[in-house]
Amino acid sequence: MSSLKSRKRTERITNALCFIALIFLTCLCMLPIWWIFRSSLMSNAELFKWPPAFLPPRWLFSNYANTLEYFKFWTYLKNTMIIIVPSVIFGTITATMCGYAFARLRFRLRNFLFTLCVGSMLLPTMVTLIPLYIMWTKFFNMSNTFWPLILPYLCGGGAFNIFLIRQFVRSIPRELDEAATIDGAGYFRILLNVIVPSIKSAMIVVAMFLFIQIWNDLLQQMIYINTDDKFTISMGLSQLKGSLKTDWSAIMCGTCMSFVPGVVFYLLGQRYFVEGIVMTGMKN
Predict the structure, then answer these.
(1) What is the DSSP string of the chain?
(2) pLDDT by residue (tens digit) across 123-161?
């Protein structure tokens, strides 16, 4: 009996220590975000005081209104959404179709094509940068448009996303496909009615990966977009940092406004994101 009480006490102490460590690590991860936010509510003079203040001496929310006068946040957000929405939707759909084909369908050169697809992840972006630029701007005349940033995501959404969907589809028992086939279902109906409901978490993970990738893709956006009225969030923030080298309060305001949409999108799908990462490749 005493050993049982001692074991329970040890478990409680261990759980308490783990909880304290988790809180500490959470605070440590949140500290940079808080520091950017508190800096956005301070004047430039207050930012350079030593020792630095953990809380703003004055909460200057007017900094955001002043920043919006020359940081066209809503225009940049609209342009970014024009790129992200079709890329995420069609990229997720095509990645699901490709992953299903590699996992379930039997056709010639399937393994070779899948190996080629996965191997393309080892290809550095810089290797294809110049050929793609020549193709989009010289052959298709799409310079200073959003199309070079959207069209590549309409064909699978990337090798990693195809691989992720394939692993999920392989974890679904084939007996479900066979039962649907006996009922007269074809490949597309099996995908739509059997596979998709079982891999919703994986599809949400793919959508989140695409969202984050496109949101942070400053290099590609700077190559293909040239005019201010088509700038994205990343380009607008980069320009803000370049033109306001000393106005750190405005830079911090722009930074806060730039990462809020991404944080909101992640919070909406975090449960599926964690589930998708944990369940990837696991068999039922």
Answers:
(1) -HHHHHHHHHHHHHHHHHHHHHHHHHHHHHHHHHHHHHHHTS-HHHHT-SSPPSS-SS--THHHHHHTTTS-HHHHHHHHHHHHHHHHHHHHHHHHHHHHHHHH---TTHHHHHHHHHHGGGS-HHHHHHHHHHIIIIIS--TTSSHHHHGGGGSSS-HHHHHHHHHHHHTS-HHHHHHHHHTT--HHHHIIIIIHHHSHHHHHHHHHHHHHHHHT-HHHHHHH--SGGG--HHHHHHHHHHH-SS-HHHHHHHHHHHHHHHHHHHHHHHHHHHHHHHHTT---
(2) 887 888 888 888 888 888 888 889 998 988 887 678 888
